[in-house]
Every structure is written in C-alpha cells, then in structure tokens.
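User: For a teaching handout, I'd like to show students what a predicted protein-ligand complex looks like in token form. I'll give you the sequence and the SMILES for guanosine-5'-triphosphate. Please answer with just the structure.
Assistant: Understood, here is the input followed by the structure.
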Amino acid sequence: MDTTTTGTQSLAHPTANANANADADAASGSETSKKPMAIITIGMAGAGKSTFVQRINSYLHSLSDSQGAAAEPGGGGSSETNEEEAEGQKTHRPPYVLNLDPAVTRLPYEANIDIRDTVNYAEVMKQYNLGPNGGIMTALNLFTTKFDQVLDLVEKRADEVDYVILDTPGQIEIFTWSASGAIITDAIASSFPTVVAYIIDTPRTNAPATFMSNMLYACSILYKTKLPFILVFNKTDVQPHEFALEWMEDFEAFQEALATHGTARDAEGEPTYMNSLMNSMSLVLDEFYKGIKAVGVSSFTGAGIPEFFKAVEASREEYTTLYLPELARAKQRREAKVREAKEESMRRLMRDLEVDRKKPGFVERDKWDPNYHDDEGEDGEMEDEEDTHVNVDEDELMDPREAFGGQYIDLTRAQRSAGGADMNWPRPV
Ligand SMILES: Nc1nc2c(ncn2[C@@H]2O[C@H](COP(=O)(O)OP(=O)(O)OP(=O)(O)O)[C@@H](O)[C@H]2O)c(=O)[nH]1
C-alpha cells in the first residue's frame, strides 16, 4: 500500500484495479466525451468543506488555464503542467459548482448555482419562526422543490464540464438525514457518476474515540447513500494523516492506541465501558475500511489534491460496476413491489365480490334495472329512500354526440333498446 503522506489509499477495495483502469482511461483522453463526475462534499461543521471546494475548484481552473496557455504558441504553462502530465494528458475544464449551504456568510469560491440566490435563510427563520437549524432545513426543503430545474441547468452544462461539485450545509445531519438531502443525492446520482467526499478534520480526529465516532458517521453515510466514497483527511498541514491510515489498516495498532489512551481504564484499573465498546466497534469498522479509499489533503497548501482526483476517477469505475447495477436492481425491486401491491388489491377486490355474491339476495339485486328512470317522481326527484343518483338538469347537458364528435357510444340507450339482453356493442370508428 502506498504510504506517502498524501497518497491515495485504496484499502483492499473490491475494484482494486480501478485506479489503474482510471489512469489508463485518462491516458486515452476519452474523458471529454464522458459524463461529468459529481462530487458531493459532506463533513462535520468546520471540517473544511468550503475551503476544500475552493481548493479543488481553483486546482481545476489552474489546470484548464495552464492547458490553454500551453496550447497557445509559445505558451509556457505553469508548474502544475507537470501534475497534468502525470495524470496522463487529460483535458481539464473548470467545474460546475453548487452551494447548498443557505447559512454560509462568505463563500471562498464563486458558485454557479447558489441556494442563497433562491432562498433567504434569515427570512425563512423569521417567517416560520424557526431556529438556525430548522431554518437551514426548511431552506433546503424549499430549494429541493425546485431541484428538477437545478438538475436541468446542470444537465445543460454537462457537455462543457468534467466535474460538478456540491458543497453541503455545515450541519451534516441536515443534509445526510433529511428527505431533501436524500432527494438531492439520488437525483444527482441517477443523472451523473457520483462520489461522496467525506471531509475529516484530521487534527481533531487524532484521539481514538473521536476517530471512531467520525468513522461510524462516515460508515452510516456510506450505507445510506451506497455511493462510491472517499475519506478526505483534511488539514494535513497541521496534522499528517498517517496515524489514521495505520488505524484503518492495522486493527491491532488501533487496539493499542485505545489501550494507551487516557480513558482506557477506570480508577480501579479496569477497562472502561467506553473502551470495551470501542474495541468491539473497531471490529465492525474493519469491514467498512475495506471498501473505501482514503486520501490526505491540505486545502490550505493544495497538497494531495491530484491524488484526490485520481481517487475520484477510480470511483467513476466503481460507480459503473457497483452502484449502477444496484440502482437498476433497486428500480426492479420497486416496480415488483408496485406490481405486487396492484395484484394484491385486485385479489382483495375479487375476494370481496365473491363474499358479496354469497350474501342472500345479492345476485337478484345486482342486476341491470331497465326501469331505472321510472324511479323518478313527477318532479324529477328520486323516490327511493336511498337517494344515490346524481340529480342533473338534463336541459343543461350537452348532447354527448356533439361533445365527442360522433365518437360517443351511448351505452345506456344501447342497453335499454336491447332490453338488457345480449347485444352487439357498436364499434367506435
Ligand atoms: N490549517 C488548515 N486549516 C483549514 C484547512 N481547511 C480549512 N481550514 C480552516 O478550517 C476552518 C473551517 O473551514 P470551512 O471551509 O469554513 O469549513 P466548513 O466545513 O465549510 O465549515 P461549515 O460550513 O461551517 O461547516 C476555517 O478556519 C478554515 O480556514 C486546511 O487544509 N488547513
């Protein structure tokens, strides 16, 4: 496994060849004809999502600029041209960026679509009498009602961009556990190859307990979205992320860290409840680590960003081989469920009819009554106790043959004239 500070770590991933395939693909230069890859950035408040989006945005801009400069006669290019060469002469175009955080006061990048242009978060709070989190949630819900239009806009630009980047609200649960977050994620993921970039504040995750809770959260998002997933250890300029990679790879190393951590034993020297819980949880997470990629980046210095994009390209492969078939299976399951529900309601209807027909007098009553109109009194009112017929003024009714241009078949009259006996129905022209 690659153990460079910022290297992409494909932790025994099921599609282990994906990186190699992606590179080979990149070398072929066929990306331009592909659909853009959507990157959904999710992370705890303050993990550095917006700074990360700003960094990858400026990275892609600089690649496309340097490409333009190199294409011009005498164009010198920049130091990042080397990175580009390393990526296999891939063509780069600036990304399409969506900001979904209605409460952010200052964005370090320019978003192509900004939720704040559509919904005024402060106004939502005032009008609906909500607190900050409720305000963000409602603003996102309101925005989601228009998301089909947003998707149209993105799809219109799909031929011109390689990446669609989504920045999500600071309060992670507002996006990950809300209906609107799920709708947006599903809508994007069913239109474009999609990857979730889970941003982690590395310096704040260096204690085993916080590391574990962060990983559990990441795990829950992975199993909820079922999308390709990249763990992005951010702020590596402050704290290198090797410790995290070691804990993820080597179960015993994590156990050791747990044992030596301050909260491992209580006053009597016994392992604390928390410690035992984390020991068993780490076994569960071992499975989770096998299926995801991890990369260390610094949104400040830009270190690790090329490796992040390699992981993204590898995820494109994963999306096609794992997520798309699963999406198709989910669709089939949904359709089968609807079919089954329809058949069940039809079966129930037939059963009810069967029961009704067994009731005394039902068959006699369930007959066509040719004297249907004879029930009316002189004033046109129904004489039956159960007045079940709709009373309409026939003078006001339009002649149906006029209304339907001769295509109308008056079944009542046809039936009346046939006296309820077998008859040949007139066929529409
Ligand atoms: N040292 C260092 N600081 C960083 C890095 N990335 C982000 N930060 C800082 O972390 C803080 C939070 O960054 P944001 O980008 O606002 O984080 P966020 O996740 O978007 O925050 P919310 O939207 O409030 O959840 C800011 O002070 C950033 O300057 C990094 O790579 N290195």
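For the handout, you might add this sentence: Residues 43, 45-51, 101, 104, 170, 234-235, 237-238, 298-300 surround guanosine-5'-triphosphate (CB under 6 Å).
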